Amino acid sequence: MTDFDVRPVTDDERRATFDLLGRALHSNRVSDDFWARYGVSWPAAHKFGAFDGGVPIGITSSFDTEIAVPGGAVLPLGAVDGVGVRADRTRRGVLTAMMAAQLADFAARGITLAALHASEPTIYGRFGYGSAALGKTVWLSRPAARLHERVPAGGDVRMLTPQEAVQEIPGLYRRIGPYRAGMIGRPELWWPVAHDRQAGPDGSHVVAVHSGPDGDDGFVVYDTIDHRTPESPDEGAVLKVRDLHAADAVARAALWRFLLSVDLVSVVRARYRPVDEPLAAMLTDHRHARTTAVEDDLWLRPVDVAAALAARTYRPAEPVVLAVADRMLPANTGHYEVGPGGARRTDAAADLALDVDTLGMLYLGQWSATALAEAGRIAAHDPAALGRADELFTTIAAPWCGTLF
């Protein structure tokens, strides 16, 4: 017996569930002004709440978007953007019941993949999510960090007004497109809280745009923190990069060159950058770029394993047969042959066996099958199949999400 029920959230319950999520994540209580401005980003659609006598005790929220996968295909994605349980009702099955309802809804609506950013990484593996893309934190020392003369150059960088930042950046992000596996679409409801609040008229962030021969092709959103004190009056500010996307290497280099030119800055800090972004190699002295952390950037959950495996491309290698186990969506459990020609269900004996969360880790190419086997996450019935799987699933560019949600 449970003393709660799980059901879709109604429009009248939007603010109560948002307040609940804030308390669960230790955020400040939401003001009436904040809700009036940004409540539009918390619609009732695709939210499941746990209720005790009509009072919300848990919430799991998502929005529909899309994600790029290796090979360039773009698949339907359920982006899980808020999960919380009231502190006095944790560890009673509330979270499990809500996540099960959400996954069943994804499956019923034809959502191929689900993704989230994990506040506590130990939670989500049991619901089938695996750490699928990593991001690094980089510190660039100023004024010593300078781009070397052979780094691509071209175009112009201009700063936007707050009003322009709100109006122009959403369209520019869409035009740049999901150029790397793991990148997601940013629907209309994403922008008010995640961008406008920081870069708009009431925010503190600065937005700069790069223009090339074909028009605008990159942007950066950043903030600065003044570190001057009476004891260190000459200490420069820390420039914190929040969002940086570019269509090509020239635009990307121009934006970094601009950031490194900002006066009165001692450090440029960027979190959740692609792990293979060659910032150190772009400098005259690579020691002035320090990677201070590598963290999980995106957790991925195959909702329709057959559709997900069939949608991405694979490098040339002999096929392998994967035995996938999925406790929460048992229709996914089965054997899948994966090869250069695609993927399909099969009755053939399995070469490798793995749970669906490990498939999420393997899917975008961040982790090799060999590494996951050494970590105890893949059982190799045919050890030679690990090398074939490594070659099949590997990607030239590391996966990267680049969007907070």
Task: Briefly summarize what is shown.
This protein is of the alpha+beta class.
Can you give a write-up of this model?
This protein is an alpha+beta fold and 405 residues long. It has three domains: 5-111, Aminopeptidase; 136-297, Aminopeptidase (3-Layer(aba) Sandwich); 304-393, 2-Layer Sandwich (Nonspecific Lipid-transfer Protein, Chain A). 25% of the residues lie in helices and 33% in strands. It is built from eleven helices and 17 strands. It has helices at residues 14-24, 32-38, 94-108, 121-124, 162-176, 191-199, 249-259, 305-311, 356-363, 369-374, 384-393, and strands at residues 5-8, 47-52, 55-68, 74-85, 113-116, 130-141, 156-159, 206-212, 215-225, 237-246, 265-274, 289-302, 320-325, 334-339, 342-346, 352-355, 378-380. Helix 3 (94-108) links the parallel strand 4 (74-85) and strand 5 (113-116). Helix 5 crosses helix 6 (191-199).
Write the layout of secondary structure elements.
Elements: E1 5-8, H1 14-24, H2 32-38, E2 47-52, E3 55-68, E4 74-85, H3 94-108, E5 113-116, H4 121-124, E6 130-141, E7 156-159, H5 162-176, H6 191-199, E8 206-212, E9 215-225, E10 237-246, H7 249-259, E11 265-274, E12 289-302, H8 305-311, E13 320-325, E14 334-339, E15 342-346, E16 352-355, H9 356-363, H10 369-374, E17 378-380, H11 384-393
Parallel strand pairs: 4-5, 10-11, 13-16
Antiparallel strand pairs: 1-2, 2-3, 3-4, 5-12, 6-11, 6-12, 7-8, 8-9, 9-10, 13-14, 14-15, 16-17
Helix pairs in contact: 5-6
Structural class: alpha+beta
Give the mean pLDDT.
96
Give the end-to-end Cα distance, rounded to a whole number of Å.
Answer: 34 Å
Q: Write the CATH architecture name of the largest domain.
A: 3-Layer(aba) Sandwich
According to DSSP, the number of beta strands is 17
- Total domain count: 3
Order of strands in the sheet with most strands: 1-2-3-4-5-12-6-11-10-9-8-7
Task: Give the uncertain stretches in residue-range form.
Answer: none
Instruction: Let me know the largest β-sheet.
Output: 12 strands, mixed
Give the overall form: globular
Cα-based radius of gyration, to the nearest Å: 23 Å
